[in-house]
Amino acid sequence: MSSTFWLTNARLESGYETEQGVVTGTRTELVHLLIQDGTIAKIIPSSEIIHDGLPQKDAKQMLILPSFIEKHCHLDKTLLGDRWRAVTPVRSIFERLEIEKKTLPAVETPTLQRAEKLLDIYQRSGVTHVRTHVDIYPEMGLKNLETVKEALHTFEGKLSHEIVAFPQHGLFASKDLLREALRQGASFIGGVDPATVDGDIEASLQLMVELAVEGSAGIDLHLHDPDHLGVFTMKRLAQLTKEAGLQGKVSVSHAYALGDITLAQAEAMAEILADAGITIITSVPIDRKFPPVGLLDQKGVSVAVGCDNIFDVWSPFGNGDILERAGRLAEVSGWVDERALAKTLSYITGGKTPLNYQGEQVWPRVGDEASLVVVAASCSAEAVARRSKRIATMYQGEVVSGEL
Asked: Any idea where the Amidohydrolase domain is (predicted)?
């Protein structure tokens, strides 16, 4: 049974301040929120006195934002909790795959412990939903899936999740295991570079779609292939997505090719992706071009940000703070004004922002799920730009991290 209480003295954004038509800041108001049955049941001004005797948790005038979504992580790969190690440079993705295949089984700290450590970091940073990829390949079988499911079970009631059955080492050799993974809790079929890793774009994409349709699942394809090779792959995936009726259930992670082509070509691709209902997920790399997020968004493409590698065999970097990654997106993209910074928040909240582009208050509303994060910031723009401290995380009406 969910708790019923008042979240008092909560700061909500109420509109933009403007001067001669230019946004110069964000207005806020202090309110009391009644949290009941996992939802926001009532919103009243903080000047009103509460007489009902229900428990109260004081937000102390801190900002309230929608809780965050981590759209790209690998709970089975992180080395968090184990000894420090840097990454061995390689000349190809195949060398990296071989290093990973040898390293992970030999790590002393159990996968379960490492996965739970990363989930705890996510929770404290404001995340209440994760999409995790789980390696599926013949030598490992479904062991990683079983372990990740156990870690997620530990956080039951604290966050929601999606699992991608991820054929990191190639799709064809793992197709039967992938089918079984869908039966055992995965809800997405993954894939990696159909041209480079699988060596056959058409056969790889056809099998991905076949498995997704057969298992009533979605697709999340890791696509590192650059330039027109990557573009061709996405175009074909878009066609197959529409033919199979999978619109809205397909994502492409990384999609570096969209950052390699001209803006005119990217606009044309954005129209194709929007028409097929394909989501683009970026980790905002700083060592290569990545998809033009603003352009894609303007064209109606759903875009999300994920952290991806958090101290693993692929990268020694990453701290699991998705708000930090959103701040990086704004910084790299040159989004420095109030409205653009606030808009950046939408890429880590599933599209939710307190204010819409016109400055109208759209979140929270009575009846909304009470999944939110309390932040030491004056507004969304500051939270993104300054990567402001998270005070507490609430999931479906329960405080799951921090204190109020």
From this structure: 116-400
Distance CA 404, CA 396 (A): 16
Q: What are the phi and psi torsion angles at 261 (to 5°)? A: -95, 170
Q: Which of the four pLDDT bands, split at 50, 70 and 90, describes residue 100? A: confident
In this structure, the number of other CB atoms found within 10 A of the CB of residue 136 comes to: 28
Structure tokens at 116: 């739970």
> Which amino acid is it at 386?
R
CB atoms within 10 A of CB 138: 11
Q: What is the pLDDT of residues 137-179, one digit of tens each?
A: 998 899 999 999 999 999 999 999 999 999 989 999 999 999 9
Using alpha carbons only, what angle is made at residue 132 by residues 126 and 133, rounded to the nearest 5 degrees? 155
Amino acid letter, residue 236: R
Cβ atoms of 152 and 112 closer than 8 Å: no
Length of the chain counted residue by residue: 404
Judged against a pLDDT cut of 80, whether residue 401 lies above it is answered with: yes
In angstroms, the CA 373 to CA 68 distance is 8
CA 321 to chain centre: 11
